[in-house]
Amino acid sequence: MNRQLRTLILALLVVSGFMPHALPAEPIKDEISNDLKETLKLAQKGDATAQIQLGIAYESGHGVRKDPGQALIWYRKAADQGDGRGMLQVGYAYEAGDVVEKDVGMAERWFVQALSTDCSSMAGYNLVRLSRAGLIKDKYVGIPVEGGSLTTHVDLEVPLEKALDDLAANPLTGETGKAYWIGYNPQMLCIGARGDAALPGVVQFVKNAVDPAVRHAGLLAIHLIGIECDVTGRFSESFRSRKAREALWELMKEEGLTDQVASLLKRDPWPADVPAIMGALRTVKGDCAVTLNALLRYPLSRRPVDPEAAIYAGNEVRFTIPKSYTDQDYVGIAIDSLKEQLGENKVTVEDGLLH
Questions:
Q1: Which of 72, 83, 153, 328 sits in a 20 to 30 Å window from 32, CA-based?
Q2: Average pLDDT rounded to a whole number, residues 170-182
Q3: What is the 3-state secondary structure (H, E, C) of the chain?
Q4: Chain Cα centroid distance, residue 351
Q5: Percentage of residues in the chain having pLDDT higher than 90
Q6: Which long-range contacts (CB under 8 A, 24 or more apart) does 56-61 make?
Q7: Spans of all domains in the chain
Q8: CB within 8 A of 180, min separation 6: which ones?
Q9: Exposed (0-12), middle (13-18) or buried (19+): which is 265, by Cβ within 10 Å?
Q10: d(Cα 51, Cα 40) in Å, to the nearest integer?
Q11: What integer best gives the mean pLDDT of the chain?
Q12: pLDDT at 228 over 50
């Protein structure tokens, strides 16, 4: 089929409102710049990198006439050889629907294929993006990791008990390398994506666990529920679920968990945390140094923990020391601060609550 006839047929298809779902099998022979001639020879011999380069050239019009359709043909040739870059580009084409018929399901399939390539991070990002937008049926959640992201497919049909068993068997986290984010793992993500409905089971799971790593993993799963699996900041996230917050408050009173919970709460400090923190400090026996320092993140008019200045190696260093773990005034300070921030009429202390 000559070039003019092919162009006419494609034009008629566009006018009629129909775009071909399948891609053309072979590229058109075009005049290309000398810089691209060697690339073309390699691409014709099956070199995937050269095929990607030709796709980019056609897409940008650099060294050859601009033709998104021809670009997609070369991307597809690379993708068929297992090249993740080509798979991503084919997925983008089906999502956009400019060159082929729009089909987000096909885009998802190409992105899923790319998960097994060296482009897995970007493929996962796209799957999470489509999932959050409600454009695909399957649910994907992801977290940032050093150099990219980790994506997990969430099967909500799996019973929570099975998901918790998987977490107990795999409690260790994948750190980022720079401590920008808390470390998570796929098992935590699969539980976190279930939302508030999973909280009673996860709370009991944490209370029943003996292994410290498993208890910590359960706390992180609750934190994921609270932030809706949206791990975005280096040191903070937007905590959205009140029920997940209450679950963490409850677990603060468990011996050995107070500091771990405080380190999560301080990533998005709520004024309502302060009474829960005070209650935990009166209940547990540990020193809770992390919890005491976490209180400095809260905008209290009077702090229950006073920063003291010390000179070390010629520099002023600030640290915190508790006045008393059992001083009832701590609760009063917290209540006064809440009244100041929220308004006197919005804070009510029931009779007997402080005794």
A1: 83
A2: 67
A3: CCHHHHHHHHHHHHHCCCCCCCCCCCCCCCCCCHHHHHHHHHHHCCCHHHHHHHHHHHHHCCCCCCCHHHHHHHHHHHHHCCCHHHHHHHHHHHHHCCCCCCCHHHHHHHHHHHCCCCCHHHHHHHHHHHHHCCCCCCEEEEEEECCEEEEEEECCCCCHHHHHHHHHHCCCCECCCCCCCCCECHHHHHHHCCHHHHHHHHHHHHHHCCCHHHHHHHHHHHHHHHCCCCCCCCCCCCCCCHHHHHHHHHHHCCCCCHHHHHHHHCCCCCCCHHHHHHHHHHHCCCCCHHHHHHHHHCCCCCCCEEEEEEEECCEEEEEEEECCCCCCHHHHHHHHHHHHHHCHHHCCCCCCCCC
A4: 44
A5: 52
A6: 57/32
A7: 19-137, 144-252
A8: 144, 234, 235
A9: buried
A10: 8
A11: 82
A12: yes
CA pseudo-torsion sign 259, 265, 268, 273: negative
The CA distance from 3 to 30, in Å, is: 10
Q: Say yes or no to pLDDT of 124 above 50.
A: yes
Whether the CA torsion 109, 111, 114, 116 is positive or negative: it is negative
Report pTM. Answer: 0.68
Q: How confident is the model at residue 6 (pLDDT cuts 50, 70, 90)?
A: very low
Q: What angle do CA 258, 263, 265 make, to 5 degrees?
A: 90
Average pLDDT over residues 345-350: 76
For the residues 336-351, what does the mean pLDDT come to?
Answer: 76
Q: How many whole angstroms separate alpha carbon 301 and alpha carbon 15?
A: 69
Class of domain 19-137: mainly alpha
**Is the separation of the CB atoms in 183 and 210 below 8 Å?**
no
Decide: 154 and 141 in contact? Cβ < 8 Å.
yes
pLDDT at residue 196, as a whole number: 97
Torsion angles phi and psi, residue 318, rounded to 5: -110, 135
| Region of residue 228 (phi > 0: left; psi between -120 and 50: alpha; otherwise: beta) | left
Q: Is it the case that residue 298 has pLDDT exceeding 50?
A: yes
C-beta separation of 297 from 266 below 8 A = yes
Q: How far apart are the first and last CA of the chain?
A: 90
